[in-house]
Structures are given as structure tokens and as C-alpha cells.
Design a protein that fits this description.
- It is a single chain.
- The protein is mainly α and 88 residues long.
- The chain has a domain of 53 residues: Ribosomal protein S18 (30s Ribosomal Protein S18), CATH 4.10.640.
- Helices cover 33% and strands 0% of the residues.
- It has 4 helices and no strands.
């Protein structure tokens, strides 16, 4: 019989290795986010047209604010929809 503090598994526990998130704007050296480029801004929206949070995209706070402002401007000019069923 195994000792009381020994734990045995049928399969060894797997450790998920996640890739480090990085800010694509800092890495590429982008300083200005163009609100007229709707295809680029669609990368930061989900299927309903909502802006994705920083924890999912890996964008830094500085650039997340710029992305949000650019998306809002594009929505106001009807380059992006406010809400949709399937955006992508």
C-alpha cells in the first residue's frame, strides 16, 4: 500500500506552456494607429464587434487606449459596425 502523502496519477499531469504575450505595437515600432484602416482594427474586435481586452491581445495600456480610440472613430465614420452577428 502507498504511503499516505504519496499521490499517484494514471497519466502524468501536463503543464501548459503559454507563449509570452507581447505588445505588437512596441515590437514593430508603430507610433500611430490609423482609424481609417478598418481591416487592421478588426483584429482587435470579437465576432460581436466588441473591443477585445488587453489580457487577450497582449497590447500595452498605452496602445490599448489608442486602439480603443481608433475603433470608436472608425465606428463613428461607419467604417466599422457598432454591433454585428458575425464580423469575421
Amino acid at each position: 500500500m502507498a504511503s499516505q502523502n504519496e499521490i499517484r496519477y494514471l497519466n502524468p499531469p501536463t503543464m501548459e506552456v503559454r507563449k509570452k504575450k507581447y505588445c505588437r505595437f512596441k515590437k514593430a515600432g508603430i507610433k500611430y494607429i490609423d482609424y481609417k484602416d478598418a481591416e487592421f482594427l478588426k483584429r482587435f474586435l470579437n465576432e460581436q464587434g466588441k473591443i477585445l481586452p488587453r489580457r487577450l491581445t497582449g497590447t500595452s495600456l498605452k496602445y490599448q487606449k489608442k486602439v480603443a480610440q481608433a475603433v470608436k472613430r472608425a465606428r463613428h465614420l461607419a467604417l466599422l459596425p457598432f454591433v454585428t452577428d458575425l464580423l469575421k
